Write the structure tokens for this entry.
Amino acid sequence: MKKLIILLAVAISVTAVSCSSGPTVNRVDAGTQVDLSGKWNDTDVRTVCSSLINACLTSSNVNRLVSEFRASHDGANPTVIVGSFKNASSEHIDTSIISTMMQSVIINSGELDFVAGGDARNEIRAEREDQNSGYASDDSAAAIGNETGANFILQGSVKSIVDRAGNKSVRTYFVDASLTNLETNRIVWQDQNSEIKKEITQPKAKF
């Protein structure tokens, strides 16, 4: 009986120590490729965005569009709003990271200007309406009706194909983006990145 009590006490002590100890954390460079599960990760985002942004900014259609727009609008850039980037894959993917990264780099290129859309636009409009409801002075309140309308909308999607056989699987991701003229509904640029393909081998179950 005493041995049983001692063994039980040791087991409880070991369990308590293992539960109280935190995870081991190692900081790595943000650009380091780390694949743990084989699913979508930060390396995939960088790969996709780099490819699509380069395709957009070097597109002959986009370059011609920008030149023609500037010529007819006193040198101003075309204005773009970011629409939805849909996740049509089999896993959870935060597609807003893709659209935000593309928007940031394209803005900084100086080729296209962007206006706020979605939740950000709604928040801005709510603030503008609040300023014009009597809480802000007339000379400091942002005027209503002066928003810049977008000329084009940037949209996209993420899709995936998973092929499985035994303990092996291959995940292939297809990410596309397009730029559409809001007035004519004409797609002026479209491209797809399908460079991401991962072979994943799961350990075989042991009996």
Notes: The chain has a mean pLDDT of 85. DSSP finds five helices and five strands in the chain. Residues 2-20 form the longest helix (19 residues). The helical segments are 2-20, 42-57, 60-72, 96-109, 118-135.
